[in-house]
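Build the 3D complex.
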Amino acid sequence: MKVNITKNHNKFFMLSAVLLVVSVGALLFNGLNLGIDFIGGTIVQVDLNQEFETEDVREFTDKFDESADITYAGEDRHQMIISTRIDMEEDQRAQLIDDLTEKYGSETEVLSIDNVSAAIGNELKAQALLAVGVAILGMLVYITFRFEFLFGVAAIIALVHDVVIVLGVYALFGIQVNTPFIAAILTILGYSINDTIVVFDRIRENRSKYKRNDFVNLVDNSIHQTLRRSINTSLTTILAISALYLVGVQSIKDFTLPMIVGFVSGTYSSIFIASSFWYMVKERRRTDIKVK
Amino acid sequence: MKSKSRIKLAVLLLLVLSAGWVLLNGLSIGTYRVLPVKEAINYGLDLTGGVYVVLEAQESEDDPVTDDKINRAIATIRQRIDGLGVSEPVIARQGDKRIRVSIPDIQDQQQALEIIGKTAQLEFLSPEGEVVITGAHVEDSNAIYQTNNLGIEEAVVSLKLNSEGTQAFAQATEEYLGQVIEIRLDGEVISAPVVNSVISDGEAVIQGMRNIEEAGNLAMLIRAGALPVQLDPVEIRSIGPTLGQDSFDKSVMGGMIGIALVLAFMLLYYKAPGFVACISLGIYILLFLLTAALIGFTLTLPGIAGIILSIGMAVDANVIIFERIREELRLGKSLMPALDAGFRRGFTTIIDSNVTTLIAGVVLFALGSGSVRGFAVTLMIGIGLSLLTTLLITKRILKLFINTSLVNNKKMYGA
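Done.
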């Protein structure tokens, strides 16, 4: 089997460009559906232990927010999740629970309450962005030190590619984003860079075996040699997360879903995008020198 | 050589399996007891259920927030929570103006939310609106039943005033005999009794309680005293015990299925070295659980994401090495030299890829807080242990395994 990554690199760029345009478009038009962790608000999850209609609950939620979101949850749809942007007061929450208990009986059980003020949400956002920024910078420095600057840039491009696509999927389908999502993005960050480094490591090792300017064979063969590893590692990791996703409760699904999307994208980008980018820049520089 | 290696491998397998058994089930020899690892690890509230509240002190120009006020507020909140009779609450200062309270394993979460951040400034006001006595004058307070003048038993809060309070109250009840003395809690009138007689023994009751629970809460708030500063909740997380347990059970189950799938894949795909990888990953998981229990870190849901990533990376390190060995074997090398070359050549790859991810972990630990930090800790431990097991342990076991001559066919090693 011969891989022709370099020959087809424009096709991969096109595919990624389309994915990125769709993602950015979705982010611009739909925006991220930020949950209460980021914008403030209240989420109450209640198990009514019986079937119910969301419309019947509306009369209670209208008391504090007419645009509150009521969704079913749980395997038999006996649970509901009430979500509002209102930072509910203690007595408003107590009122809601009293109302529900009165209507649906003492079987009513409050599973969880999350109440976050907008200020906390902004701090969290700022903190997460700063952490990710510094982490990327640190990795760039390390890769420059151990490999070369261009590898670092290529790895970061692949990384940003993956994160944008995950954000895009979330914007496109309007899936709500809360703190677990940050953990997921961080995991994708670590995974994507790890994946890319393994391919680059092989390019670094193989460099002495090829003619100085034979980037085509250098890149293609390096990718070929690491392909089984890339696929096997991704497969095992995705297997493990998928198991967690399928079995898990809502909060586990919240962070395993973006991880699955991110890992698929991470594998793709480290094979097709990161090395192609490195190859493209190297080729350009070579032609530049020739022209001179 | 051959039989000695076989014995060694058998002993090793036995050791790993029994260590695994002890970690899962615990062990007690005489008075010495090893807890099952499940009980030795601390879990975050998202896995056990509980209440987590961040309170922010409200500042006004003439009433700045001071260290002293925050510390006194923490002491008061601690006393209140102790009054609920729950175990191991954590009440800590966070930054300049915030107090973080987390209470695991609490059944009545609504009650906790009601009392934690309440200022609880109790005041008795004269008809002219002057403060007669405050909560600070109260020595003791209890919820009791009392028969009211209609002959109905009702729940009330009894107050025992200190000497200064007793004196002030006696004076006030004398002065305002037949008039109304309002009792206010945080500015809200909770009871407005008419003074029927002069009260000089320092005993008073607050009526108008809905039930004995409400009276109990108020009595407890009065005993603990008012907060020296107004605290507003900026973040509340209340996870019911059912949901917490459910999250925990399902994470454990999902994790076990995931690990089983990974092990099955390694065994089927890499055969002989895959078998060794299974032992090595088993040791990795044991070490991880042991470390988690020993350093006493708190496992949360995002932490589980960190564990998955680190298991993924531990598997990756094995895959990298095995693929290298395979390449070496295809060059015609025999098993042992191929193994040595595979590890030697895979070494830098594994170091570089893990260090890069470790950098992310360290930065997130330094700059993050809460769940981000929990994630970073598991990731850092995971990477450290994964390097240790793959580079030191897997190599030894693989050599041992080759020496047993149980599987000599190079095809079973990927050639």
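The first helix of chain A runs from residue 9 to 29.
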